Amino acid sequence: MVVSLNAARKGKGRSDRTINVQRVLELLRAQGPISQADMARATALSRATVNNIIKMLRDRGVVEFHWKNGREALVALASNRGAVIVVKVEERCVRSSLFDFEGQMRFDLHNSEIACWAEEPSSPPMVLDMARRLMDASATHRAKVEGVAIAIEGPIERSTGAIAPWAWQRLPEWKGVDIQKQLARSLRVPLVVENDANLAALAEWTWGTGHGSEEFLHIICGSGVGGGLVLGGRIYRGGTGLAGEIGHMIIEETGELCFCGSRGCLTSFATEHAILAALRNSQHPRSSLREVVMSAQRGDAACQRVVFEAGQHIGKALATVVRILAPSVIAIGGPLALAGEPLLEGLRSAPEIINLRAVGESPRFCIAQVIEEAPRLGAVAAILARLDTGVSELSPWMLDPRPIPAEQTAKTA
After folding, report:
1. d(CA 118, CA 114)
2. Residues 6 or more apart whose Cβ sits within 8 Å of residue 396
3. What are the Cα distances from residue 261, in Å, to 46, 219, 342?
4. Where in 307-377 does DSSP place strands (E)?
5. What are the structural domains of the chain?
6. Helices marked H in 155-209
7. Cα 277 to the chain's mean position, in Å?
8. pLDDT digit string (tens) for 105-140?
């Protein structure tokens, strides 16, 4: 069973021991692998206290040692018990994954593989059905599902727990649904529900360029533009729950009308739709963002140009964000980030970014390292944190999914 210290929090107060364990776990997520001596210095706990906590966590399968030599070891989070399920919810697509930490295996399931859901838009019943199928698959491998995380392609309001009204048209079956409340009632395991861009940011902070940063901003660019902030090791949602919605910052007041109701949003300039539209009247239009990126990598001038210009638009939006929040690291992720340096060149050449650098120190801009499946991997990080465990390094098996056996795919809920 995955270690859980949440029970200790349900009493009237949290013991010093529980608080100290949380400090150690948070440090391991932010800076691990790390030596016990450095851990004691960073947490201001005695070495004896740190040693006892690490021994307890190791006995429960939460940490492991990476030996540097015969006398010193680095401590890393490395869950090796139980399983978790993550579900990525898009407009007409639901992708779910079972991460079996005990068997060191990952199984994926797509709604297109299930006859009754193949042509349906994503919905709460679809998510529940697919989660239950993965729970059944986990049982056949004798790994208990300890928690579920939902990464949803939409902004979630804190006041209602539902998708923000201006995004309902993209996820009509989720209109007015308190997602956490409705799904938790049926799944009956610890549950995390989060916007996919926030989870992508958490994945990059946990395993990528943002690791160790106290103030980290991650931008994901693909079919849409989303942003996620990780401050002090935690996703920052703001008072409304909608922090990080950089895609709907207005950068050109006379720009195209966005589905959110505004004109000139960043989404109108740096998404797949906008980039393909810019190439439509060229001699060689492209059919997908991936094709644009690959052509740019091969030296196609037109594709390099539109990627560069997308970077400039992103830079214009980011300059405003930097002045307000001053993150130390900003990473660009998503399919567009695969274009690499031409995108960063455009961003750095934006007049707003040039001006920003002229008046003071600016953040480090970089391409994300965790690009493929970032929201799903961030969902793993989020649910493991909820279970008071985690993994300091992505294991190869976590990136190598297997299909669910056909007989389990066909099984009804």
Report:
1. 6
2. none
3. 56, 21, 31
4. 329-333, 364-367
5. 6-77 (1.10.10.10), 83-199+373-409 (3.30.420.40), 209-367 (3.30.420.40)
6. 179-187, 196-207
7. 28
8. 999 999 999 989 998 999 999 999 999 999 998 888
Closest to 57 (Cα-Cα) out of 8, 20, 85, 14: 20
Coil/strand/helix, residue 87 = strand
State the pTM of this model.
0.90
Residue ranges of E strands in 290-349: 329-333
Residue 286 CB partners (closer than 8 Å, separation 6+) = 276, 279, 292, 295, 303
Q: Structure tokens of 187?
A: 């799944």
- Taking only the tens place, the pLDDT of each residue in 350-401 is 999 988 877 777 899 999 999 989 999 999 999 999 999 999 999 999 999 9
Tokens of 107: 């199984």
3-state secondary structure of 281: coil
Sign of CA dihedral 390, 394, 397, 403: positive
Cα→Cα distances 340→231, 296, 309, 337, Å:
25, 10, 13, 6
CB 333 within 8 A of CB 366: no
Q: Looking at the DSSP assignment, which residues form a beta bridge with residue 402?
A: 107
